[in-house]
Amino acid sequence: RERFHFTDEEMKLEHKQWMDYVMQNIPAPYPGIDAVIRRQKENGGLVCVVSHSSSENITRDYRTHFGILPDAIYGWDYPEHQRKPNPFPLLDIMERFGLQPEDLYVVDDTKLAHTMAKAVDVAIGFAAWSKEEFPALKEEMTALCDHTFDTTQSLYDFLFK
Questions:
Q1: Does the predicted TM-score (pTM) go above 0.85?
Q2: 157: how many CB neighbours lie within 10 A of its CB?
Q3: By the number of CB atoms within 10 A of the CB, which of 17, 56, 84, 142 ranks highest?
Q4: DSSP per residue over 54-92, as a string?
């Protein structure tokens, strides 16, 4: 809406085209992210997904690639006013699981996630491994975020070592 000034009808068409694509294509995860997710769960931690993908696709992808399901999913299924960058998902996670902002850590590659996290004083790590081909965005996000991870291994080391 903001970048391309889509109308409601254009947004519906864009969503339908995206859903048609993702229902036919299961994206491969970034190499090494499975180790992060599995270790988080093995350590008794939560894995919550805040995404612009649908819960159906996220559930399918996690089951396919990791053999687990996220503890909570906040996807495109939620009303627009509850999707990132709105902090609703983080507020709901804190309420559902009895957590404080310092108990959460957001890992993402978008400015929308930064806006969401900072609205409720939650630390955010930039998943820079996904933005190598966008140096200007990488520079901006590195400046904005609390930490930058150039590889999934660097995220793993930060979280577990």
A1: yes
A2: 12
A3: 84
A4: -HHHHHHHHHHHHS---SEEE-TTS-GGGSTTSSHHHHH
